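Lecture 7, part 2: worked example. A protein chain together with farnesyl diphosphate.
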Amino acid sequence: MAVPRENKTVKVPDKIPYHIAIIMDGNGRWAKKRLMPRTMGHRAGMAALKRVVKACVKFNIPILTVYAFSTENWKRPGEEVDYLMKLLVEFVNKELAELHEQNIRINVLGDYLQLPFECQMAIKKALHLTAGNSGMIFNIALNYGARLEIIKAVREIGRLVKEGKISPEDIDERLFADFLFTRGMPDPDLVIRTAGEMRVSNFLLWQIAYSEIWITDKLWPDFTEEDLLKAIDDYSRRERRFGGLIIKEKGEENA
Ligand code: FPP
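Predicted complex, written out as structure tokens:
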């Protein structure tokens, strides 16, 4: 992929990830440290998200995926869930015009039709307005769970087999991936997780099979453009083998 390497203010590494996926963790801890309610952590998390979207556009990242609300997040206190839903509507109302101006295409991963009505309306507006944009794809995972996504794909494929439209032998990785929310998109190259937790939390389980993982102790509301650049820089130095070997030139040492 050809991307401009030089940026006005920062030097962007040569090898940049095509698709970055982020687990935005630590909003609650950020608020707790400041003796604030958890909801304030989510509000600060929204500000961090705005920064990171801008930074990804600036660094020419073609796809950004963020984990905003998981299928498991419904277990949180009703008050917190309600606040997150309100924040989503606020995010769309305040940011949509600018996201559209930046030629960003918004996409939702997950069953958003189970969200409150106002959220569904806000999402539909965002999807509709940005559908024709050709810039960065901004995937927001909402009411998303990777296991459910996989089960949904299996059900749909099973139905096609039952109807005789495909045979079991037709099922391969490519066909399977077409039944996921990320249909048509390359898998994430880099997964970033904030707040130091070493787990994937039911996020894109199929798609991150060979992704590079970058974890920082920074809490999500504190995450900046500079942190993103650090993650990209670290990624650019990694050697990806996808289960194979790097064949060295004659005379080079094999590591
Ligand atoms: C995890 O932090 C974060 C979430 C469950 C929500 C992420 C939401 C945002 C960043 C808000 C803005 C986004 C939109 C589009 C609504 P946590 O609460 O689990 O933190 P903790 O582990 O420290 O408790």
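The beta strands are 19-23, 63-70, 105-109, 137-144, 190-193, 212-215. The mean pLDDT is 94. Keep this in mind for problem set question 3.
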